[in-house]
C-alpha cells in the first residue's frame, strides 16, 4: 500500500487520494489531471532508465535515438532532400546567390559574432540586441531571419509569436556534423510552429489592451476577473493557433499550379473565436478540410482528424493539456517537475528534438504521443515524480478532511457528474462546493440546491461568494473549510453573506418568509452598524499603534485601492476597503510623523522618521470633521475625542498592548464577503 502525498492516507496507487484530488486545482493548479499512468511511466522509463544519474544531454540523446525514424521527427525535413510527404513534393525554391554576396567564411564569422553577443553570458543592452536582430541571422539555405519591432520574419514571411533566437544561434554554430544536418531542415516551417506557442488568443485582445492604456478608468468594464481559467475547447488552443498561421505559408509553399482552396479565407477568422476563453461556449469550430491539411505531412493533422471522427465530433477537446514548451528570453524551455513543483528547464539547441516535442504537444490531449510528452514532464528527474503542495497547504487540507469526517451534513462526491463537497445547511437547503476559479478569482465555487439529488447532479444555482481582501495569502484548505463551516450554519452565516441570504429567502417554504424578512432587516442594520464602528473603533485603534511605535518603524500600505495594511514587527493589520479609508489612513500617518519611502513589491513602505505635528489636536479636528459629517449620526460626540495626545518620543510605552498587537476584524466579512 502507498500513501497519499498530501494527507498520508493509505491508497492502492501512488500519488493523490481521490479526496485530495478534488482540491488539486486550488493547491497546485490544474496539472494533476495530466498525471501519467503507471504503464506510461514504465514505458518511458525504459528509454531514460539507463541514463539516470548522467547529464541531461545524455538523456535527451536517448529520447532522440528512440524516435529517430518517427514521423514526429521527419515532418520538418525539406522535401527537396528526398523526404516525401504523402506523395506531394514542394518545389525547392532556388535562391539567387547574387542577392546575398556573402561567402561561407563571412557568414560563419557573422554567426560567431552574433552568438558571442546574443548567446553569451554577457547580455548586451536592449538597443544593441534590437540592432543585431534587425540585421538578421543567415541560414544555410540562403534565407534570413530578422526581427523588427518584436515582429519576426523569415524570407519575407511573418512568423508569429516569440522565437528562441539564442538557441537558434547555438544550433547554427555547432559542430561540423551538426551544421551538415541543418542542411536538411526546413527552418521557416519549424520556427513558424514554434512561434504559435506564444501567439495571443486573438487580435481583439490586443486592441483591448491598447484601449485600456488610453482609457484606464474603463478597465473593469473590459477585464472580468471571474472568467473561468480554461475555455471550452482548451485542449485545441495550440492547434487553433497553428491553423491561423498556416494559411499564408501554405499559399506560398504549394507547388506551382496548386492552389489552396478558398476555404481558409472564411476559417481563420471564426477559428480565433474558439481560443477566446469564456465566449462562444455553445458553438463548435467550422468543418475542417482534413484532406488539404494532410498534404502537409504533419503527424498531428492525422491525429486530430481521427480524434474528431472526420471533423464532426470533438472528443477530447475539453481536456486541458497544460503548457509544456515555452519561449522565454530567446531560449526554448520545457516545464518539468522538480521537487514536486513545475519549473522551466532549458532544452539543448537541437532542432530535431524541438520538432519531436512540438509534434507531441500539437497532438490531441488524449493521444499517446501527447501523453508521452506529459509523462516526460513528470518523470524527467524522478520516475515516481508527483506534484506536491506546500506543507502549509497539506495541513489546511487535513483540517478540512477532519471537519467533513466529524459532521454528517458534509460529504465528499468523488465521481462524476459533479465532483466536490455537498453540504446540508441548517435551513434544510443543500450546497455544492467545488474547487476551481470562482467569482472574482475566488478559489472555490458554491451552488445552492433545493434537494440532495440536485446537489449530486451539480445543477444548483450559483451563489456569488468571494474571498475578501488579503485572504489570498491563506491556504486554500483554510478558506474552503471556512466556507463549508459557514454553509453548515447557513441561517447564521446569511447575516454576513447577502447572496446566501437571498438564496435562502427565495427557496425556503412560505412559512419561513416572515422570519427571513426579519433576518433581512437585521442584516441591513448590522451592515450599517458595522460600517459605523469601523470609523469609531478601527481607526482610533490604528492611531494608537501609530503614536506608540518608535522612530524607524515601518508600515506597509497596499498599492491597490483595496488591500491589507501591515506593520513590520507588529501583528496589527486591517483591511483598507476604499479610497476614502485610504485617505484617512494617510492623514493619520502624516499627522503622527510617518512618511512614504517608496514602493516595496505590491506595497508602499512608510517609515516613522519625525515627531507629530504641532497642535496635532487641531489637525485631527480638521481631518476627522468631513468623515464624521458623511458617516456619523446626529448627536454623536466629536470623533476627535476618541484620539489621545501623542506620546513624547522620550517617554514612549515599553510595548504595544496585547489588544493592539493582533489583526483587527469587525466580522466574518473580513475573511470572505459577498459581491
| Oligomerization | single chain
The secondary structure category is alpha+beta
Residue fraction in strands: 5-15%
Major β-sheet, in short?
5 strands, antiparallel
| Overall pLDDT metric | 76
Overall spatial form = globular
Describe this structure in words.
With 675 residues, this protein is α+β, with helices and mostly antiparallel strands. The chain has 3 domains: 347 residues, no CATH class; 118 residues, no CATH class; 143 residues, no CATH class. Helices cover 41% and strands 14% of the residues. It is built from 26 helices and 21 strands. A 5-stranded antiparallel β-sheet has the order 10-11-12-13-14. Strands 18-17-16-20-19 form a 5-stranded antiparallel β-sheet, covered by helices on one side. Strand 8 and strand 9 form a beta hairpin. Helix 17 crosses helix 18, helix 19 packs parallel to helix 21 and helix 24 packs parallel to helix 25. The longest helix is centred in the last third of the chain and has 36 residues. The protein is globular and about 90 Å long.
In short:
With 675 residues, this protein is of the alpha+beta class. The chain has 3 domains: 37-383, no CATH class; 391-508, no CATH class; 532-674, no CATH class. The protein has a 5-stranded antiparallel sheet with strand order 10-11-12-13-14. Strands 18-17-16-20-19 form a 5-stranded antiparallel sheet, with helices on one face. The chain has a 4-stranded antiparallel sheet with strand order 3-4-5-6.
